[in-house]
Known about the structure:
The protein is of the alpha/beta class. The protein contains 15 helices and 18 strands. Helix content is 36%, strand content 17%.
Amino acid sequence: MSSGKPSRWSATQILADDTTDTTGLDLERTPIAIPLEPRENSVSFAVESRFGVDVHGRSENQFGGGPMHRHTRARAASLFTLLVAVAIAMTALAVPAQAASSDSALGTKTPAKGTPVKIGLITDGKTSGTDNSIETPVSEAAVKWINQYRNGVGGHPITLDICVDNGDPSKSADCANQMIQDDVAAVVFGSNQFSLNSWTPLHNAGIPVFIFGSGTPDLLKDTASTFIFGSGSTFQNLIISAAKAQKTKKATAVVIDVPAATQIFADTSPYKKAGLDFSMVPVALGTADMTPQMQKVVTDNPKGVVHVVGNDSFCIAAFNGLRTAGFKGQVTAIPQCFSDATRTAVPKDFLDGIKITSSSPVDNPKDPSIKQYYAVLDTFGAKDVDKSRQTGLSMFQGITGLNVATQNLKGAATPASIIAAAKSMPWSVLPGSGGYHIRCNGKASPDPQYAATCTNATLLATLGADGKATKYVVTGDAQIPA
């Protein structure tokens, strides 16, 4: 950051259409009650209409303390009937508006009516240093939505087979073997610190793996049965672009020390090719105070680019350590760094200007794709999860990516038919992405190192002092050829 402040993305660095929805109307239906207080010698009653209007009334012998004449009763009856009619009409008008709002977010119901297909999910869940247990309720809600609204897997409703490995390398392999024994047709990965341990047995068994993102080279370059919905070179592009904007030749990656993260930066050739002096600093999972490590980073790279990779608690420690050490360069990070916890624990002056690359406009509730994500969680039993976490959205994209990739599947849902359907899928929008597209035919990247990736697209953003993006810009979303 020059003079302690970051440079901003220029128009020549990022080009995209701004499709953010800035309008919306939420209509709430409120039941209307018409009470008429019962008096002495009266009998109260209540009528519940099919529109949800509770109408309270009474039958009585006296009105206002005196005999009720026929014309008075007639007027009262007419007034009562009018009020009921108005109440019903008002409520009836509100019902379609509410239903339309919900339907427009969830889409049109297209239930899967074929034979069920078993799909596996392998997730770290909660470990000693991270808590990604959010992935289970998010995936369960997504599957219910997919089965009711999105035709399942080529017309087959999904039955979810979940295995939690708790970040244990042996359990990661055990989960894969469980999936093979359970005869699943495909497996979706959530967070998986030892993804290679899970992937290898599945790959050898011919079972396709769908995953939002991976930095593991064996997965990225697989042409047989692996489908990755995030851009393979996202981190490289962000770091290199930020270094150019900062006019620096120094870049450091501060990375949570687990194989799934450190493998992303094992190949330093792209940075060297860009003329950068690049280094990686792994930090142990669960390190609460990173001031000593960040002091070393700042001593070596006081005004360059520092890229942070980890979950929110890891990134909080890294950000605060960099701030304490007096870092004056440009900070970049992954979206998993940011949650409401991050925005509370890290001072605003440090959050302001951080650059991110993201798979979704996670902190923009007005974006149609995020409205849909919220609607799925709220409707299908996951309304209490932390919607601010990118971890949940990435899980959502992994499950829904499988659904999108298999819409053209015909016949039985088997590992072979799912692989064939995914490789022949059309260019399609990935749910929760802010509108970018995927196509899993192996042509998304000309680089064979990223043969399994299904997109080149990503979102770029600069954060404000509130720790939220000032604007998301889609980049790299050119149509992938058939």
